[in-house]
Amino acid sequence: MGRADTIDIGPCPLCGGVHHYALRVERSKVSHFMPAGDEAQEKSFVRLFVCPKENEHYQSTLSLIVEPGWRIKSVEVGGMVEDPDG
Ligand SMILES: [Zn+2]
Predict the structure, then answer these.
(1) pTM higher than 0.85
(2) In the chain, how many domains are there?
(3) Could you tell me if residue 34 is inside a domain?
(4) Could you give the 3-state DSSP secondary structure of residue 28?
(5) 8-31, pLDDT tens digit by residue?
(6) Can you give the residue range of the structural domain that contains 21?
(7) Dihedrals φ, ψ of 26, to 5°?
């Protein structure tokens, strides 16, 4: 099942601003494998984002925390999250 995450990406290479996106992250439990350590790990993914100001795509790297005993099956960039500052 997906879980809603949000992420801030910036500075945007097109407009220089910071944008907020919703992410759909699919995690799955790694039941047959218990990691030796209990450390959460940071994993990086390269994805395409849409700049709301220029209305163009750009590529950026996002980082997610992976809890021990879990893995990330897929990461999809959803829509923009409303920015209260406009
Ligand atoms: Zn932008």
Answers:
(1) no
(2) 1
(3) yes
(4) strand
(5) 999 999 999 999 999 999 999 886
(6) 2-80
(7) -105, 115
